[in-house]
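Input (DNA-binding NarL/FixJ family response regulator):
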Amino acid sequence: MTDVKVLVRAVDPLVSTAVSSHLDSRPDVEVAVGSDSPVDVVVLITERMTAEVISTLRRGKAFLDAAVVLIIDEISRTDLLTAVECGVVAVLPREAATCERIEDAVTTAATGGGMLPTNILGHLLKHIEHIQRDVLLPHGLHTSGLIPREIDVLRLLSEGLTTAEIATRLCFSERAVKRIISDLTSRLGLRNRPHAVAYALRKGVI
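Output:
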């Protein structure tokens, strides 16, 4: 198994050293000494989301492109959304950040998962629901980046229908169907129709 490369950052050097030493004692974790080499996960330990912390997260997202485990004393709903935008996939309250939970969070983050406390997850889900209901739907948009008619076309494509059959089913012209497929593949950087169907399946819209 390939080692998970982890970078630990904290305002308090003693805390940083303690967490680094513990993680480095695991046989499947390699703690990075500096931020020059690529890492899989960044563990950031702080009291609250200050402007400096947010700046650090943004720089990390831009230059490291690593999943972030945030260990923090307190975080507001607004700060949570900012953190998620900056690559944070796991949030641990400092009072509950035991060695075992930090290990679990690092492993989960390294494998593409996430870990959020129940109350924080609830805030995030409510915000996503708000965006979907009040921002996207009134403009005919979807979180997948697809509009309703594109989703309809892709759903029928996934069922094996031809362009002509899709046009008949949706009361479009064949040219309109081809244009819809061409527009969405170009906009989303998709190679062809099977790639577009696979994209829609991954996004859970068909």
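The radius of gyration is 22 Å.
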